[in-house]
Amino acid sequence: MSNKSLGDPFNPESDLQHGPACNCPICVFKREEAESRYECTESEMTERLERAVYEGTATDSQYVDADASADAAPADPNAFRADGSPDNPTETPETIIDRAIESAVVRAVFGHNEASRRNFMKMLGGGTAASILASIFPMEAAKAAFKDKIGPLEKKKLKVGFVPITCATPIIMAHPMGFYDKYGLDVDVIKTAGWAVSRDKSINKEYDAAHMLTPMPLAMTMGAGSTAMPFIMPAVENINGQAIVLHNKHKDKRDPKKWKGFKFGVPFEYSMHNFLLRYYVAEHGLDPDKDIQIRVVPPPEMVANLRAENLDGYLSPDPFNQRAVWEKVGFIHLLTKEIWQGHPCCAFATSAEFARENPNSYGALFRSIVDATHFSSRAENRKDIAKAISPKNYLNQPVPVVEQVLTGRFADGLGNVRNEPDRIDFDPFPWHSMAVWILTQMKRWGYIKGDVDYKKISEQVYLAADCGKLMTDLGYEPPAKTYENYTIMGKTFDYTKPEEYIESFAIKRT
Amino acid sequence: MLSSLNVRAALLSVVILIVTLGVWEIANQPPEVKEAKTEYEMLMGGSAPHARVPNPSEIGTLALAELSDPFYDKGPNDKGIGLQLLYSIKRVMSGYFLAALIAIPIGFMIGMSPLMHKALDPFIQVLKPISPLAWMPLALFILKDSEVSSVFVIFICSIWPMLINTAFGVGSVKKDWINIARTHELSKLRTAVMVILPAAAPTILTGMRISIGIAWLVIVAAEMLVGGTGIGYYVWNEWNNLDLTAVIFSILMIGIVGMVLDLLLAKATKMVQYVE
Lengths: 510, 276
Prior knowledge:
The structure holds two protein chains of two kinds.
Chain A: H1 25-34, H2 42-58, H3 66-71, H4 93-109, H5 114-124, H6 126-136, H7 139-146, E1 157-162, H8 169-173, H9 179-182, E2 186-191, H10 195-203, E3 209-213, H11 215-222, E4 231-236, E5 238-240, E6 242-247, E7 263-266, H12 272-283, E8 293-296, H13 302-307, E9 313-317, H14 320-326, E10 330-335, E11 346-351, H15 352-357, H16 359-377, H17 382-389, H18 399-407, E12 409-411, E13 417-419, E14 424-426, H19 432-444, H20 454-461, H21 464-473, E15 486-488, E16 491-493, H22 498-503
Parallel strand pairs in A: 1-2, 1-3, 7-8, 7-9
Antiparallel strand pairs in A: 3-11, 4-11, 5-14, 6-9, 6-10, 12-13, 15-16
Helix pairs in contact in A: 1-2, 4-7, 5-6, 7-16, 17-18, 19-20
Chain B: H1 2-27, H2 39-43, H3 56-68, H4 81-112, H5 114-127, H6 136-143, H7 146-171, H8 175-183, H9 188-226, H10 231-240, H11 244-272
C-alpha cells in the first residue's frame, strides 16, 4: 500500500521506509497480521489499514501506543465512511493529502536515504527543515492543486492573457461559458497582440497566467530568447489545429520540393509552428535556414501579409488558416495533424512564483482550465463554443470561420469540402515526451546549445503528475504514463534516445 | 473681400469633398451577392471576395453607430471608441507633460551656457534620431509594466523637439535685452524668468507643438504593439478581423483628435507671440 509512507517526514523519529523495527500503526498491524492474530477478509483488512493510517497520521506521537491503536481498529466496516469524512475530528482528507505530498517530496530530496533524512531533521528540527524546503519547492501549490476542496482563494481577481486564436479556446470560452465563475474566480481574459508581448507581460507579472506556446515555458525556464524565469506548464490546451496555407498563386506547387525561395510566416520562434514547418520541409530535403525564409509574423497579421504577397505561405494557428480561405487569398495545403497526429500546440502556463504564492487560486484556475478543455474536446459543444468566442471581446472573427475550424467541416480553398473532426482537439495532459521532442528540435535548429538534461527539464516544466491527478479528481481518465513514442511523418521518435534522434537527421545545425 | 474669400474657399472644400466621396462611392460598388448554393460556397461565404475598400456610406453608417454610443464598456477587450481615445489621450498627456517638465529646464541650461551646449550636444544628436518604438522592448524589460512603457515611449519621443527648441529660443534672445537686465542688476534667476522666458516663449511653444504632433503619431503605433486599450489597440483589433471599414473610421478619428491637439497648441503659441 502506498499510504504506508504517511509518517511525518519532518519527525526524526519516524521511519518513512517502515523497516522491521518500525512501530507505526501500519507496520505493527502488518506484523500482527502476519502472525495471524487477525483473521479477516481482504476488504476488511484494507479498511483496517486505512483506518490505521488515519489514526497514525493524526497522532504520530502515540507510536508507542501502536498496539492499542491497532486493536482499536473497528470491526464495523461502516466506521470508515466512504465519503472520506474522517472519524478523527482533527484529521481531514486534506491534511492526509498534505502529508502524503510532504512525505514524497522530503523523501525525494534525501534521495530516499532514511538515515540522512533522520539525521538532518534531528540537527535542524522539523520546523526549520520544513520552512527551508518550502522556500525551494512550491509545496503549498503542489498540495492545493491536489486537493478536492480548494481552500480560501488568495486572489480572486486574476488576469489571464491570450492571443486571439482558436488554440486558446479553453482559456477564452471558460469566460463566457462560466468555467472560471464555477471555481469562484473573477478572471479578466486580456487579448494580447503577440507572444513576445505575452511573454514579457507574464514575466512582468501583469498577467497571472497566460496562453503560451508549448515550447515557450521550456525556453523561458532555460533562458533561451528571454531572461530565465521558472515557468510551469500544468496543462496543454489543444492538440492539432494548425495548417500550412499557401497563396492562391501557388496552387500548382503542392510539392514542397518546389518551394525553394518561398517566404513563410510562423507566429513565434519558440513555437510548434516553427518546429513543425522546419521538420516538414527538412523531410522533403529543403534546408529551412537556407532554401526558404522563415519570418516571425503575429497571427492576426498573417492574412494581410499573404494578401500583400509579403508571404508565400505560413504555418499558423487557426482561425487565420480558414480566414485566408474565407478571404479567397489562400488555400489549405496541409493540416498539421497530417505531419504529427496529436501534436501539442498551445499551453496554459504560469510562473512558478504565482503557483507558490497563491496555491489555492492557482488550483482553482488549473481546475477551470482542465474542465474547460474537456468541455471543448466534445464535438457536440463545438458549435456553441464557436458562437461564444467569435465576438469582438474574444477572437473578433466571423462565426462561420470559427465554426469551420472547430467542427472540422471546412472548405479547403481548392474546391473541396473536407470533414476532419479531429482538425483541432483539446487535451490537457502535458506529456513529458512532448517536451523532450520539443527540446530535441530546439537543439537540432540551434536554439539551445550544449548538453541538455531532457528528462529533468521536461519534468520540471510540464506538470504531468499534477494534471493527471486533477483529471482523476474531475472525473476524467488520465493516461497511465507520461512518456510515449511518436511517429512523425513515418519516422519514429524514441523518447529514451533524444541525442540519437537529433543525430539521425540529415539537415540540422548541430 | 476677405470674408467672401473665406466663404468661397469653404464652398470649394465642400465641393471637393462631395465629388471625391461621390466618385469613390460610385466607382466602388459592392459585387453582386449571389445566393450560395452548394455547401462549399456556403463555407466559403459566397463566391465573391469579401475584402475590398469600403464605401463612404458604409463608413458613415459605422461611424454613426460607434459615435452614438462612444463610451460603452463590454469587458477588457471591447470598449467604445470614445473610451479608447481617452485612454490614448491620457497616455500622451502623461508622457508629454513629463517630457516638458524635464526638457524645458534643461533647454534653458543649454541655451544659457555655451559650455553645457557643447558638452550635451553629442548625446542629444545620438539619442534624437532613435525611433521611439525601438525603445519599447528595453522599456518593457526595465520598467516591467506595459502601461508605463508606452508612457515612456511618448516621453522619449516628445522630449527632443522641446529640448532643442527651448535651447535655441533661449540662446537667441537678444544680447541687448540681457545686458539691460544686467544694468538693472537683476539676479540670474529673475533674468531667466522675467526676460528670457517671455522672449523665448514663442520658440518654446513651437517646440511643444511639434512634440504633441509626434507624440500623437507614436501612441497609435505603441498601442498596436502593446495592446490592451487605446485607439492603437482599436485599430489592431479591427485589423485582426480584416475590417477595413472600422480601420478607416479610426483613421479619421485619429486625424480629428490630432488636429484638435495641434489647434490647442497653436492657440497657445499665438497668446505668447509678440512684435518687436
